[in-house]
Design a protein that fits this description.
This protein is of the alpha+beta class and 697 residues long. The strands form seven sheets. It has a 17-stranded antiparallel β-sheet that branches. It has a four-stranded mixed β-sheet with strand order 24-23-30-31, covered by helices on one side. It has a three-stranded mixed β-sheet with strand order 5-7-6, covered by helices on one side. The longest helix is centred in the first third of the chain and has 17 residues, at 42-58. It is globular and about 100 Å long.
Length: 697
C-alpha cells in the first residue's frame, strides 16, 4: 500500500511547515503562522490501529496485523511508528453477473463497468464502484429504479472469495410530466427547449445529465438541478416519473476589460460585452474588440522587445501600425432541437506575422453546429471575407513564385477568401486541461472556389488526434498526431488578377501549414521547421564583401557572397515559407514531482513539404527530444519545455532587396548559404525554451 494513502487514513500526523514557500522561516521559528504543531493523542492513536486494519480489510487484506511504537525524540517530542504485517490477501476466484434473460447489458458493457477483477485482492471499494457503474448503465437503458445486489462468499481456509452481482432492472420508466421552477426572466419555453427529453420519452439518466449541462453552458443559471419524483397521482404506475427542473438565474449581462503585453503584440487591450439572453430565447450576443501592437515603434529594440517585430529587408512602418480584431457574434442555441446551434458573425481584423506579412480583412460567417453525441459536435461553416495581404517582396516572391512588381501589386489588392468548411470532433478525455485518460480527435475539410465566391481557391484537409493512458495515480503517457494537406486550384491566378500562369497555383498565406513551436515540434522556434529562406540587408552584404566591385557598386548584386567568413549566421534572418503538407507526431510521458509540480519527457517529430518553389528543398523533417515541467495552477498548467534541436546544416537561398531607379526590387543571390544557427557552443546552443499556459496537446 502507498504510504501517502495510509497517512491520509489516520488521525496521528507529524508536525510540519505550512508551506514550501515559508520553509526558511520554519528553520528559524515554530510560530503558528509558519509551522503547524501536532500533539500525540493516545486515544486517537488506539483508534488509528483500528483505522489501519479497516483500511487493509476493505482492500482485501483481512489478516493484516497492526501495532505502534512511540519513541522519545528529544524534549516534549516523540516519534510514532506503525508496524504493519499485511499478510496474504483474500483473492477473488470468480465474478458472477446475474441478469434477466434476454440480457440487458452486453458483455462488452459489463467488462467496461466491472472494475473488480479475478485473481486480484477482494477490494470492497472496487466492488462498490462496480455496483454503482452497473446501476448507472441500467439507468441509461431506461431502468431508473434498477437495483444491483452484491453477494460475497469467502472461503477462509483457501483465502478465496466468490463475488456475485445480481441485476434487478424492475421496470422501464417514462417521463410523465416536466415541471419548471425558479425561473423569473428566462421563460419556461426557453428552458424546455434546452431539454433533450420530452413527455412520453424513456426516462434515462444520461439525458438528464446532458440537459443539465446544456442549462449550465447557457450561462443563464447559477444552479440547474434536474430531479425525478414519483407522480402525485397514486393511480399512475411507479414507472412514470415527473421531472422537476429547478433553476437559479444568473445576471444576463457581463462585461470585462483587460490589458497586457508580450514580445509579439507589444501592449494590448481587450474589451468584451456579452448578453446571454438577448431578446429572449437564450440568444447570446458577444461584442469583442482587441487592439494590439501599441507603442510598437517606441518599444521595439528596448528590453525584452529586442528585434520583436523588425523584418530587416522590408519597410518597418507596416509592422508598427496597431493591430485589431473586432467581432459581433449572435448565437441561437437549441435551434429547432436541443442538439443544434446557429451562429452569425460580423468581423474585421488587422493582424501581422512579424517579418512575414500584414493581413487585413472584414466579412461575415454563418455556422450551423449539431451535437452528434455527447462531446462530439459537427459544424458546417461558410465564411465570406474580403482580404488584403501586405508583405515584403521577399515573401511574395518566395511563396508565390511571382517577383515582378505589377503582379506583386495585384496580389496586394483586395481579394475574396470565402471557404466552406466542415469540421467534426469527439472528445473522450477525462480533463479539459490536463487529461491522463481517453482520447480526442478533430477533423476538417475545407473548399474554396468560384462556387463559394472565393478568389483564392483550394482544397484543404486536416486531421488531429491525441490519446492518453494513465500511469499509476497521477502519471500519464500521451501521444499526439497531426496531418494536414492543402492544394491550390489553378484558376486562382486568373481570379486574383495574376497574368503569370503558375503551375502550382497561388495559396493564401493563412492556408499554408507550418511546424515548430510550443504546441508542435518543440526543438524548433515558432514555425521554424520547414522550408525557409534567408534574408539580409544589402548594406550588410556590401560592407562585408567590400572587395567585390559588382556587389558594392550595385551593378550585379546577385554576385554578392553570403558565405564570407566575416558573416555570421546571426546576421541572417530565417523566414518560414510554410508548406502544402505537414505531418507531426509526439509522445510524452508525464509524472508527478511534488504536489502540483509535474515533470515531462517527450519526443516530437515533424515533416513539412512544399511545392511552391522548385529551387528550395522540397521537404524538411526532424526528430527532437526534450523535457519540461508543468505547474497546475487555477488557470491551467503553466508549462516550461526544453527541446533539443538536431543542429543540422542547411543550404538556403539568400534574398535581399535592392533599390533601382527609386524602386525596390528583389534580388536572389547566386550562391546559397550553408546555414547552421546551432553551430558552435555545444549542446547549450541547441536548446530551445518554450514558456506557455496549457499542455502541448
Amino acid at each position: 500500500m502507498k504510504q501517502t494513502d495510509l497517512l491520509q487514513s489516520v488521525y496521528t500526523t507529524a508536525s510540519h511547515c505550512n508551506s514550501f514557500l515559508v520553509k526558511p522561516f520554519c528553520w528559524i521559528s515554530k510560530a503558528k503562522y509558519f509551522y503547524t504543531k501536532k500533539y500525540l493523542d493516545h486515544k486517537e492513536l488506539e483508534r488509528d490501529v483500528l483505522r489501519v486494519r479497516v483500511f487493509y480489510w476493505k482492500r482485501g487484506y483481512r489478516e493484516a496485523e497492526v501495532d505502534t511504537v512511540v519513541v522519545p525524540r528529544g524534549h516534549n517530542q516523540v516519534g510514532v511508528t506503525f508496524l504493519i504485517k499485511e499478510g496474504p490477501p483474500t483473492i477473488v476466484s470468480s465474478v458472477i453477473i446475474n441478469q434477466p434473460t434476454p440480457p440487458l447489458l452486453s458483455k462488452r458493457v459489463i467488462d467496461r463497468h466491472v472494475v473488480l477483477g479475478r485473481n486480484g485482492p477482494l477490494n470492497l471499494i472496487r466492488l462498490d464502484t462496480s455496483r454503482v457503474f452497473l446501476q448507472g448503465a441500467l439507468f441509461d437503458e431506461g431502468y431508473a429504479d434498477a437495483e444491483v445486489d452484491t453477494s460475497v462468499v469467502v472461503d477462509t481456509a483457501s483465502r478465496t472469495a466468490v463475488v456475485t452481482l445480481t441485476l434487478n432492472p424492475k421496470y422501464k420508466t417514462t417521463v410523465e410530466d416536466i415541471v419548471v421552477t425558479g425561473n423569473d426572466d428566462v421563460s419556461e419555453g426557453t428552458i424546455r427547449k434546452s431539454l433533450t427529453f420530452h413527455i412520453g420519452d424513456i426516462f434515462r439518466r444520461s439525458e438528464m445529465l446532458r440537459s443539465q449541462r446544456a442549462l449550465y453552458e447557457s450561462n443563464l443559471f447559477r444552479r440547474a438541478a434536474i430531479e425525478a419524483r414519483p407522480p402525485i397521482d397514486i393511480a399512475t404506475p411507479d414507472s412514470a416519473k415527473v421531472v422537476v427542473v429547478t433553476v437559479l438565474e444568473s445576471p444576463p449581462r457581463e462585461a470585462r476589460m483587460s490589458a497586457g503585453f508580450n514580445t509579439i503584440d507589444f501592449v494590448q487591450f481587450d474589451a468584451r460585452f456579452t448578453h446571454y439572453n438577448f431578446m429572449g430565447g437564450a440568444r447570446r450576443l458577444d461584442v469583442q474588440g482587441v487592439i494590439g501592437n501599441l507603442f510598437a515603434k517606441s518599444l521595439n529594440n528596448r528590453g525584452i522587445f529586442h528585434n520583436a517585430s523588425v523584418p530587416q529587408t522590408s519597410a518597418l512602418a507596416r509592422y508598427f501600425v496597431p493591430t485589431y480584431n473586432a467581432s459581433i457574434d449572435l448565437r441561437q442555441p437549441w435551434f429547432g432541437s436541443p442538439h443544434n446551434e446557429l451562429a452569425l458573425s460580423l468581423f474585421t481584423h488587422r493582424r501581422t506575422a512579424p517579418g512575414i506579412y500584414v493581413d487585413r480583412g472584414y466579412g461575415t460567417s454563418l455556422t450551423f453546429t449539431r451535437d452528434l453525441a455527447e462531446r462530439a459536435p459537427a459544424s458546417l461553416n461558410y465564411r465570406f471575407e474580403i482580404s488584403k495581404v501586405d508583405a515584403g517582396d521577399v515573401y511574395f516572391c518566395i511563396n508565390y513564385g511571382v517577383c515582378d512588381t505589377p503582379t506583386l501589386e495585384a496580389l496586394r489588392g483586395n481579394q475574396r477568401l470565402s471557404p466552406i468548411t466542415l469540421t467534426s470532433g469527439i472528445d473522450r478525455t477525462n480533463d479539459p486541461f490536463s487529461p491522463n485518460r481517453g482520447y480526442r480527435v478533430n477533423a476538417s475539410a475545407e473548399h474554396a472556389s468560384a462556387f463559394t465566391l472565393s478568389d483564392f481557391r483550394y482544397n484543404r484537409a486536416t486531421l488531429d488526434g491525441a490519446s492518453f493512458v494513465p500511469v499509476r495515480k497521477r502519471g500519464a503517457i500521451g501521444a499526439h498526431a497531426r496531418i494536414g494537406w492543402v492544394s491550390p486550384l489553378g484558376s486562382t491566378s486568373q481570379a486574383v488578377g495574376v497574368s503569370v500562369n503558375l503551375d502550382d497555383g497561388i495559396l493564401h498565406p493563412r492556408k499554408r501549414f507550418y511546424a515548430g513551436g510550443s504546441h508542435s515540434v518543440r526543438g524548433f522556434g515558432e514555425n521554424q521547421l520547414g522550408p525557409r529562406v534567408l534574408t539580409i540587408p544589402l548594406v550588410s552584404l556590401q560592407s562585408h564583401d567590400s572587395l567585390n566591385v559588382a556587389c558594392t557598386s550595385g551593378t550585379d548584386v546577385t554576385q554578392c557572397n553570403p558565405n564570407l567568413a566575416t558573416l555570421k549566421d546571426r546576421d541572417f534572418d530565417p523566414r518560414p515559407l510554410g508548406g502544402n503538407f505537414v505531418a507531426e507526431g509526439s509522445v510524452e510521458g508525464r509524472f508527478p514531482v511534488w504536489r502540483d509540480l509535474i515533470g515531462a519527457v517527450f519526443v516530437d517529430a515533424g515533416i513539412v513539404r512544399q511545392k511552391t518553389n522548385p529551387t528550395l528543398p522540397r521537404q524538411r523533417a526532424a526528430i527532437t527530444p526534450g523535457f519540461g515541467v508543468r505547474y497546475h495552477s487555477p488557470v491551467g498548467p503553466i508549462r516550461a519545455d526544453i527541446g533539443l534541436n538536431p543542429g543540422s546544416t542547411e543550404s538556403l537561398p539568400v534574398v535581399t532587396e535592392n533599390i533601382v531607379n527609386g524602386q525596390k526590387t528583389l534580388v536572389t543571390l547566386q550562391q546559397h548559404r550553408t546555414y547552421s544557427p546551432t553551430k558552435g557552443g555545444g549542446i547549450l546552443n541547441r536548446i530551445v525554451l518554450h514558456l506557455s499556459i496549457g499542455e502541448a496537446f
